[in-house]
Amino acid sequence: MNNSNHLVNSDNVGYASYLFEQEKNKRYLPGEGPYVAAFASSNLGDVSPNILGPRCINTGESCDNANSTCPIGGPSMCIAMGPGQDMLDSTQIIGRKIYEKAKELYASASQEVTGPLASAHQWVNMTDVTVWLNSTHTAKTCKPALGYSFAAGTIDGFGTLNFMQGTTVGDPFWDSIRDQALGKPSEEIKECQKPKPILLHTGELSKPHPWHPDIVDVQIITLGFLAITAIPGEFTTMSGRRLREAVQEEFATYGMLNMNVVISGLCNVYTHYITTYEEYQAQRYEAASTIYGPHTLSAYIQLFRVLAKAIATDTVANLSSGPEPPFFKDLMTPLIPNTVDRAPVGTTFGDVLQPANPQYRVGEVVEVTFVGANPKNSAENRTHQTFLTVEKYEATSATWKIMHNDASWETRFYWHKGLLGHSNATIQWHIPDTAQPGTYRIRYFGHNRKQDFLKPAVILSFESTPSTFDVVTTW
C-alpha cells in the first residue's frame, strides 16, 4: 500500500495476520476472536514487497539505478510495482503468500520453546556513544539529523519536491531555506554526519519539543534458547544479519550456546532507519534516515553485546538503567480544530443520500452514501465498535446476522468532507465469491459534534439502517 492510499487499513503483513486469525477464529468477526496471530516486523528497512521492481511509469523502462530516477520526469516517475493489478490486489497476493508459508511453518513446528525467562533493558544517550572500531581506534555517534535523500522517499513512496536518492552534496537553495526557517546546523553536526548532507538538523531543534529523541531504549528478552532483540527502528537486511551474529557470538562466549536470535523491529521508541557503515556512504533514503550518523549500527551492536553478556552471566541486576528519557506532559495541540457537524436542511445524520440497488450479483460492489459526520468523533467516543456492518437476514430465526464489519477486507468506509461542517459517508461492500444468496442490509454508525450557543460541545451517537437488497448468484 503506497502513500496514495487514503484508507486506514493493514498492509500485506497485516493481511496475512487477518487471514490467519480468520482461519483460527471461525464464526468470529475480524478482531473479535480469541486467537491472535502476530506477524511482527524484523529487519525490514530495505525490504520491499513490490517484487516487479522500479519502473518509469511514463515510459515503462527500468529505473533501478543509484538515484532511482527516470530520464523523463525524474524521481517522481520511478515507482515499484507489486504483482497485482493495483496496490490492493498486490497487498492481498503478497499477504496471502506470507500467510500460507506461516500456516505451513505453524503446522510443521516441532521444537517447543522452553526454559528460563530473562530480560535486560537500558536507556542510552544515542547522541554520545563512543564506538570502538578496533582495539586502538574509536568513533562517536552524532546528534540526530535527516539527509537530503530522506526527502526523496523511496521507490515504494516517493517525495514531492523532486529530491533524489543518493544525494551526497547539499543544495544552496534548500540550505538557505532551512537556515532562514530553522537556523543553521552546527559545524559539529555537519562534520559528524558526513557524508550525509544535512537537510534537517533535528538534534538541534527543540521547539515545541525535541524533534528527535536523544535517549533510546535497548532491550533483550530471552526465553530458553530464544533471544528477542528489541530494536528502536528499522534495520536493513545486512544490519540485522550483523547484529544477530554479534549477539549470538556474545551469548556463546559466555556459555549460552546455539541461541536463536530474533530481531523485533520498531520497539519502544522510533528512530527511523539503521544502515551499515557501507550503506551509509551511498546515502539512499535509509541512510539519509539513519539519524545518529555513520556509526549507528556499530553503536547498537556494542550496546546489545553488553545486554547479552549481562543475561549470560546473570549480572543484569548490576546494569545501569541509564539516563531516563524526558516525559512530556504538554503535548502539541491538534493542527485541525474540531468543528461542529451539520446536516443539510431537511435531513439528519445517517439519512440515505444514495441507496443500494434492489439486487446484486456475487462479485459486484454495493455502495450506499449517507449524511455523515466527522469519524474522529467516533474514535474519541466509542459507543459503537465499528463504523459499519453488513448483515444478512436469517429467515429461520427472523433475525439479522452480522457478516462483516469495518475491519473486513470486503468493506470500505469513505468520508467526504464538505464545507461548514457538512460531510457525506460512503460505505462499500465488495461482495465476495463466498457470499450466500439472500437478503442483506448495510448499517452505518457514527457520532456528530453539536454545540449550542455559549454551551460546551457534546458528542451524540447516531445509526442508520437503510433499505434492504438481495444478493443472487445469477440473474
From TrEMBL:
Pfam families per record: Ceramidase_alk (PF04734), Ceramidse_alk_C (PF17048)
Keyword terms: Hydrolase, Lipid metabolism, Metal-binding, Sphingolipid metabolism, Zinc
Domain Neutral/alkaline non-lysosomal ceramidase N-terminal: 1-302
Keyword set includes Hydrolase: yes
Neutral/alkaline non-lysosomal ceramidase C-terminal domain sequence ranges: 305-471
InterPro entries found in the cross-reference section: Ceramidase_alk (IPR006823), NCDase_C_sf (IPR038445), NEUT/ALK_ceramidase_C (IPR031331), NEUT/ALK_ceramidase_N (IPR031329)
GO molecular function annotations of the record: metal ion binding; N-acylsphingosine amidohydrolase activity
Reactions catalysed according to its record: an N-acylsphing-4-enine + H2O = sphing-4-enine + a fatty acid
Record has Transcription as a keyword: no
EC number: 3.5.1.23
Entry superkingdom: Eukaryota
Single GO BP term: ceramide catabolic process
Active site: S48
Cofactor annotation: Zn(2+)
Annotated cofactor note: Binds 1 zinc ion per subunit.
Cellular-component GO terms for this entry: cytoplasm; extracellular region; plasma membrane
UniProt-annotated binding residues for Zn(2+): E234, Y273
Family, similarity comment: Belongs to the neutral ceramidase family.
Protein name: Neutral ceramidase
Organism from which the protein derives: Physeter macrocephalus (Sperm whale)
Gene assigned in the entry: ASAH2
